[in-house]
Specification:
- The complex is a heterotetramer of chains A (224), B (203), C (63) and D (251).
- Chain A is mainly α and 224 residues long.
- Chain A contains nine helices and no strands.
- In chain A, helix 2 runs parallel beside helix 6, helix 5 packs across helix 7 and helix 8 runs antiparallel to helix 9.
- In chain A, 46% of the residues are buried.
- Chain B is α/β, with parallel strands linked by helices.
- Chain B has two domains: 122 residues, 3-Layer(aba) Sandwich (Rossmann fold); 63 residues, no CATH class.
- In chain B, helix 5 links the parallel strand 8 and strand 9.
- The chains are: A mainly alpha (224), B alpha/beta (203), C mainly alpha (63), D mainly alpha (251).
- Chains C and D meet through helix 1 of C and helix 2, helix 3, helix 4, helix 7 and helix 8 of D.
């Protein structure tokens, strides 16, 4: 084995470790359902009210759940000395960061998207909104992963980093939340959701081009 | 022969102050450079500069050849088995075609960890983890080895094993820079000594 | 002297709050600056003092 | 020209020179602020007549609007300083970027509170999810995040660099947030009464606004230099130049 495949190696390792951790990797999903279950308990089980707020609530729960897995994105790698290896011998750092973000999304966000029908059922989400809600999650959660990973990279060495994470992330994710839930409610009102989805896609493109650069800079500052 | 690493008057500034006095490094093929200095004199920073992990605040570095860097923290994921750690590095870093790469199993054997192959790295002792980190040099060999305190937590056997590794690599015209402050490597090859001076205040 | 505004309470309270925030933002750093200088001066005097006593101890030992 | 500018830049980057520069400039800036505020407040409270629709409550605009402008301008200035700090690693720029955040947060707070007070007689409620108020609230959170991140590092310079990266991410994000919140309010409220818009401002109402805005700019500059001077002094307690400075003060 002489040729190197750093991207493949990292992806394989990330997935392998997630698999080994088993239940721990599913914590965000469990947390999501815990939040979903709290909502009727707080607001009463009336189907009309729940159906009305279901899309927004599922999105807010997904946002909160995405916070949980962030501790593990870069910090363990910095602590055990594997992160600095990314910078040795002309490794493609930016691509490695993208791989890490991708595997993080696969592990923490994809299960949530897959489980949305169940969450929707628990909140009486109208059936015609489900597909669109899942689509917005599919486009929107990668943006959450990007912003979240940046905040994680910035707070690796900070005191009480995890408490800061929320404060850093929430203001930046406002547009995602607005466009995603806007799409669903426009659809339920009988309007077209197209502009919202397109805006969400352009947000994703913007975030995907700029945020990895910022993450690289932040990680580099951590290594100094 | 040309040097594989040629650094001219490099230094690194932290908080506006030099970590160490600007230093020249010329590492030749088949040569070992022993980097000495007190605690906090900047040995680690110098090695990280040579590896390209941080960029020099002043001076220039030219590298000709593939680089392996083993830092303070050996770069071993505690939740992977010893075998998986080496498999990962074989694929992640790849091997320089100039040198023969060992299989992960063979490297574990050479490092004296054959029986620990299926153990999680977190369950290994500090010395065993250090050996595992160094075994990366066998599965993903590179021309230039930059080793930060490789003898840390190793017993006499382990130190001798590292000396052997270094000798073998130097004999193949590889180059090594080692930061060590207690144990001095006992080698056949010529050893060059570089003393790192802690930086003076930068006005 | 004070004009009789309609909505006077709203107008005056918003001006007052704005003024309070501004004063807090202006005076806080001013006091902090004084405190810093004072503290640094004290540190320095203390240091100089220590140097002197150390020296005098030294001479005493020799004597 | 460029070279001279660069030289001046680097000179200002040296802490003792910057400290002395700030020292001499601060009283002047405060005096100018005082003049501007005196004229502006006099005009705003005594000269301009009441509005035929809103009565006197529109006078809140003369603090609300300059504060809102300064809240946004501060972010822009902070972003420019953050770029200078990250690219050229000039320390005084780093410090000024960081101390700009609490000042910006202060103006944002003024804007929010006066907006809420204005809303009470107009909307009949203290808080409305109006687009501008909502964006300002988010801006306040961004400011707090930057301050929090900076404060969470024992190593001030490391903290400043991390927070500078965050500042730059925010600079891309803030227009998007603004736009999205705008969209959101039009979606959920139909058409709101446009209270804060400069829609139909009588020209006689303009001069106090200009005076107040200019006064606030000087105020900001004074506050910025004040805080930067403190931060520099606090960080450099053990450095030669502070010792010399204190030595001069003792004599």
């Amino acid at each position: 084995m002489t040729k190197r495949h750093p991207l493949r190696a990292l992806l394989r390792q990330d997935l392998q470790r997630a698999w080994q951790h088993g239940g721990q990797s599913l914590l965000p999903l469990i947390f999501l359902f815990a939040v979903i279950a709290m909502i009727p308990l707080g607001l009463g089980p009336g189907p009309n009210l729940l159906a009305m707020i279901a899309p927004g609530m599922i999105w807010v729960a997904a946002l909160l759940a995405s916070l949980l897995a962030l501790e593990g994105v870069f910090r363990p790698d910095l602590d055990d000395g594997t992160l600095e290896q990314w910078w040795v011998d002309d490794q493609p750092v930016l691509a490695l960061i993208c791989i890490r973000l991708g595997s993080h999304w696969l592990i923490s966000a994809l299960p949530i998207i897959v489980a949305t029908p169940i969450a929707g059922e628990m909140l009486y989400l109208p059936a015609e909104a489900l597909g669109l809600l899942m689509l917005t999650l599919l486009i929107g959660t990668p943006i959450l992963s990007l912003i979240g990973a940046l905040a994680a990279a910035l707070t690796i060495q900070a005191r009480q980093g995890s408490a800061l994470l929320g404060l850093l992330i929430f203001p930046l994710t406002v547009p995602v939340l607005i466009f995603a839930t806007g799409a669903v409610s426009a659809h339920l009102d009988g309007l077209t959701a197209r502009p919202y989805v397109l805006l969400l896609i352009s947000l994703f493109v913007l975030a995907a081009t700029l945020v990895p650069l910022a993450i690289k800079k932040a990680l580099q500052l951590n290594l100094e | 022969m040309d040097s594989v690493i040629h650094a001219q008057q490099i230094s690194f500034h932290r908080h506006g102050e030099r970590v160490f006095v600007p230093t020249n490094v010329a590492l030749m093929p088949g040569q070992l450079c022993l980097i000495r200095g007190q605690n906090g004199s900047g040995k680690t920073t110098l090695l990280r500069l040579l590896a390209g992990i941080v960029h020099p605040s002043e001076g220039t570095i030219a590298r000709h050849g593939s680089v392996a860097f083993i830092g303070h923290r050996p770069g071993v994921k505690k939740d992977l088995t010893a075998l998986d750690v080496l498999k990962f590095y074989a694929e992640f870093a790849g091997a320089d075609p100039l040198y023969g790469a060992m299989s992960p199993q063979a490297a574990l054997h050479a490092a004296g960890l054959a029986r620990q192959a299926r153990q999680r790295a977190g369950q290994l002792s500090a010395g065993q983890r250090q050996r595992l980190g160094l075994a990366r040099l066998l599965v993903a060999p590179k021309t230039i080895w930059l080793l930060d305190e490789p003898y840390t937590s190793l017993d006499a056997d382990g130190c001798a094993w590292v000396d052997g590794l270094l000798d073998q690599h130097l004999a193949l015209n590889g180059s090594v820079a080692v930061a060590a402050h207690v144990y001095q490597p006992k080698l056949n090859a010529p050893t060059d000594v570089l003393d790192v001076q802690p930086g003076a205040q930068h006005a | 002297m004070i004009p009789e505004f309609s909505y006077a309470n709203y107008v005056w309270s918003s001006y007052a709050i704005a003024m309070a925030v501004v004063l807090w933002q202006a005076l806080g750093p001013m006091f902090k600056h004084r405190r810093l200088l004072w503290q640094l001066r004290e540190d320095q005097l203390l240091e100089a003092d220590q140097g002197n006593t150390a020296k005098s101890n030294h001479t005493r030992e020799h004597a | 020209m460029w070279k001279r500018l660069k030289l001046a830049f680097h000179k200002l980057g040296s802490p003792p020179i910057f400290y002395r520069f700030a020292q001499t400039l601060i009283p002047w800036l405060w005096s100018l602020t005082g003049v501007g505020l005196a004229v502006g407040l006099y005009q705003a409270l005594y000269v301009v007549p009441p509005d035929y629709q809103q009565g006197d409550s529109y006078r809140i605009l003369y603090v609300h609007v300059p504060a809102a402008w300064q809240a946004m301008a501060t972010y822009l200035i902070m972003a420019i300083l953050a770029i200078i700090a990250l690219v050229w690693r000039i320390r005084t720029a780093e410090i000024m970027a960081m101390v700009a955040a609490p000042i910006g947060a202060g103006f944002t707070l003024i804007c929010l509170v006066t907006g809420a007070i204005w809303g009470e007689p107009m909307w009949g409620t203290w808080w409305a999810w109006d687009a501008r108020l909502t964006s300002m609230l988010i801006l306040l959170f961004i400011y707090l995040g930057i301050m929090g991140l900076y404060a969470a590092f024992d190593d001030h310079r490391q903290g400043a660099k991390m927070a500078s990266v965050l500042v730059l991410v925010g600079v891309v994000n803030i227009p998007i947030i603004h736009f999205s919140v705008d969209w959101w309010t039009t979606l959920h409220q139909g058409s709101t009464i446009n209270l804060f818009g400069p829609s139909s401002m009588d020209p006689t109402m303009l001069p106090p606004l200009i005076w107040m805005t200019v006064a606030v700019k000087f105020m900001f500059a004074a506050m910025l230099l004040q805080r930067a001077r403190n931060e520099l002094l606090a960080q450099d307690q053990r450095k030669q130049w502070t010792k010399r400075l204190i030595g001069d003060l003792i004599e």
